[in-house]
Amino acid sequence: MTTTPLNQLLEKMFAGDARALARLMTLVERDGADVGTILQAISPKLGKAFTIGITGPPGAGKSSLVDQLTTLLRKAGKTVGIIGIDPSSPFTGGALLGDRIRMTQHFLDKGVFIRSMATRGSHGGLSRATKDVIKLMDAAGHDYVLVETVGVGQTELDVMGATDTVIVALVPEAGDGVQVMKAGLMEIADIFVVNKADRDGAPRMQTELALMLELKYSARHPEPGDPPMWKIPVLPTQAVNNIGIRELFQAIEEHHRFLQDTGELVRKRKTRRREELLSRVEYEARRRLTTRAQTDPALAQLLDAVSEGTTDAYSASMQILGSEVFRTA
Amino acid sequence: MTTTPLNQLLEKMFAGDARALARLMTLVERDGADVGTILQAISPKLGKAFTIGITGPPGAGKSSLVDQLTTLLRKAGKTVGIIGIDPSSPFTGGALLGDRIRMTQHFLDKGVFIRSMATRGSHGGLSRATKDVIKLMDAAGHDYVLVETVGVGQTELDVMGATDTVIVALVPEAGDGVQVMKAGLMEIADIFVVNKADRDGAPRMQTELALMLELKYSARHPEPGDPPMWKIPVLPTQAVNNIGIRELFQAIEEHHRFLQDTGELVRKRKTRRREELLSRVEYEARRRLTTRAQTDPALAQLLDAVSEGTTDAYSASMQILGSEVFRTA
Lengths: 329, 329
Hints:
The structure is a homodimer.
Chain A: H1 6-14, H2 18-30, H3 35-42, E1 50-55, H4 62-75, E2 80-86, H5 95-99, H6 104-107, E3 112-118, H7 125-139, E4 144-148, H8 154-160, E5 165-170, H9 177-182, E6 191-194, H10 202-218, E7 234-236, H11 245-262, H12 264-293, H13 297-308, H14 313-321
Parallel strand pairs in A: 1-4, 1-5, 2-3, 2-4, 5-6, 6-7
């Protein structure tokens, strides 16, 4: 890799250079000293892309949905960034990439940028990195950013929280409605999709989801000043056959308009930026602490005492927070 | 609630008073000003309990396994603490409690202490609180602490990481082995249980899991100095009929001996205490920052600027970490 200066990389990326974008993503993933400069530089360019999260259990056909939505968006002349979060696995680091082979049609399309991210070896690192990669997609001028995650782990929920519209994809086999609630999907969905809608059990699942949503709405006691309510649609699709995709996109657009008209988009993004700051502070506090312990014998000794159980973690944390540990990067 | 002084509560708890233990748990969950005193006071008493985590998908029969293991441990004269983590749900806050009704037999047993914890409204708060509740169970003198979680979210993985032996319970319906890997369960299991082993597909699932484990072992290239390897057993059980429970407990004891004989127990617990410190520092940094923003106009202004998008989160975090924000609780 030649060492193009960072400002040149950034300029190229703003000018639409995909390779510069890819390299900036790598820098952001590595979380090196460049990250600050990159994030500061792209900050004024942010907020133009509309971001869509797609989540659900394995086998729900999320990649097909992303594929078809991308085709539709491209036909409408929109540029698309796609981020796939691969679940961690000790053997098949790139299991999901197989699913994405059918995305090949988009690989040659300059209006589509695809990035896979692995979940391994991160402690909050992946969700931080993913959010920064979403920003880079935005700063590079993509009209839409689609983020695909599997399941409902903390990382996935966290990443979904960084998107404007969340689509939860289910399949009839995913089990009854109670499991959906348990999995915490109910709380994050803006749009439900029952994919593989030609299968047995699909209409029942649709009805159940709709009933559960009705239950949720009727349990509400709206107060003056409450945020306006979005009625979550439940849509049948057959992504592999391109059935229901247009209706799904219409629902996405309706949700987008709802967010804009009610001021929710502004509010959501404000909350998100604040949360990003808090996470970044946590992350950086941990990083500085562990880095500094490598060169500061007193701090290393304190950490050892906690490891050995001779000092309790609470007292040690108070001592650390009251010290100068975080003052220098 | 009368206001028994904290030191009296602690003394009662050390003397085996269950109500004092319950009240200390509530204090720890609330994360008020008392937490530090409590954690410091119990610190010298820790490390005597052996902790067992039990996780797996909904419907795998985890509560039945906990129930049967508890009966077996009680017959052996051991005291047992049980912690159940309830998945969050907007409607059925106590869904899992229903499952625990069959635990009623243990409610009247003074050698068993049961605590349910809810996942709602936490940002890392639940896993912190759960770990502190495990400690209280330990400090109160329980021989075994059983922790039951559902699924493999970050919180659940985090909580499992705080136990000595992790049992992953699956049922034939849980899907094929690939899904197991994807879900990240493979990486945390010390013992696999295929529960409801009388059902169709159970033997196939057992074989598949065993094969996947063989694959994992054969992919290893052990180096001198590598930690010794534990061979993960795959055990069939029918928890509701009390079949296979004795064999499961034997496997738990074997794992316990393995951990002791190889020094892994000491190593694991050291790592765990260090990680606990780092999490506590993160958690406390966030808490102090948000608390202080309520009374410090300059800080509030900085947070607002980040919310509005006029200052980027990265620069703001650097500014905050370089300041005095964390110095005072």
